[in-house]
Amino acid sequence: MDKRKRRVRHGMVKERARILVVGGGYVGMYTALRLQRKLKRELNRGEAEITVVTPDPYMTYQPFLPEAAAGSLSPRHVVVPLRRVLDRCHVIIGEAETVDHARRTVTVTTLATEEEGTGARRLPYDELVLAPGSVSRTLPVPGLADHGIGFRTVEEAIGLRNHVIEQMDIASSTRDPALRDAALTFVFVGGGYAGVEALGELEDMARYATRYYHNVRPDDMKWILVEATDRILPEVGEELGRYTVTELRRRNIDVRLGTRLESCAGRVAHLSDGARFPTRTVVWTAGVRPHPLVAATDLPRTARGRLKCTPQLTIDGVPHAWAAGDAAAVPDVTAAEPGTECAPNAQHALRQARALGDNIVHALRGEPLRTYAHRYAGSVASLGLHKGVAQVYGHRLKGYPAWFMHRAYHLSRIPTVNRKARVLAEWTLSGLFKREIVSLGSLEHPRAEFELAAGGKPSPEPPGDPKGSS
Q: Which parts of the chain span the membrane according to its record (predicted)?
């Protein structure tokens, strides 16, 4: 008799089911959360166990990263601690290196692996959820690895905020006109959500900060957005995309469409249209690709490297394996055109996670699986304080109404009442008091001062670190 059938009797799991969730992002956290709620009785009886393997002990709510970078939100309020939320799960902080589904094992390295000297662990499982997410899609641009700054993690967001304020400090104190010009030139590559929202929020913050500098004015700064296609924010539609370009240009932001970054070697941004900008800030937000773990599995993948899934969120042709989110190619059954896949965004990830968790429970209990179907509701984007664009169910909003909807929507989506209350409190206080513009770049190297005092040398800064931008 099939193992799954032997687990089920009168709709209840009768044999211990080991569920392994790889990834602690949107899909990983919400799937595990759904499972621990739906399998509460089975977990209490020891008939099921849920293990979550994730490189970070928290889930980052990425739509709030631009506001964290601009100082509107505290970094700790845009992350959700997994151990607190997943209190019925076994959370392992580590990296999944390979997946051998034929043997039902995942190879994992943890923070203790190197010091133990025993090699990577092999975790067995009965049901596998692969949700490793995505990583930045980079190109072989000269100088990018040395000088580029990403914008996918809370560490990068806060590092970029510190870096921008530090550049303003450098420009204010230097007597070298060339150094001042480079310090006040900020190049953002990528016209999607991450690039446009990060640029909009940080330009807004820097413009506000100039009132506290005696020799730096808003017009002294150059903000440049580089996009390889002929439009930005394609998710909000062509009309709102054009509106966004117009609004950014009204703020003296140089938007260059149909343009690519060809090099940033020597701290000079060379663009495909022939323009050259000496700059100490190149922010790379030009798309994502599936996590490298996907290629280290024996599971079927699409031509684009994503896991090939069914509308029920199982991996196509593979029993006891599930996937969703950025690393999964999930058919969009609501699309008019056959072969369309769900977009790799948070809107689908949140809903896929709930459906995935429910379907695992259905499978364990011998019940029919349900098809994931969600018609795209629309998109919202912030362009800075009180500025935004939104397209929701065919309705277009601009300016303050769109910005308000952006905040209301994401406040409703960030997990836990605790986080909702803290975010709302911070927004309320920021409306009553002035914006904080302090750079805490030294937090990235907290031992530097003590190492000098003890007679040593400060540890070298890693390549590409925003603090290493001298």
A: none
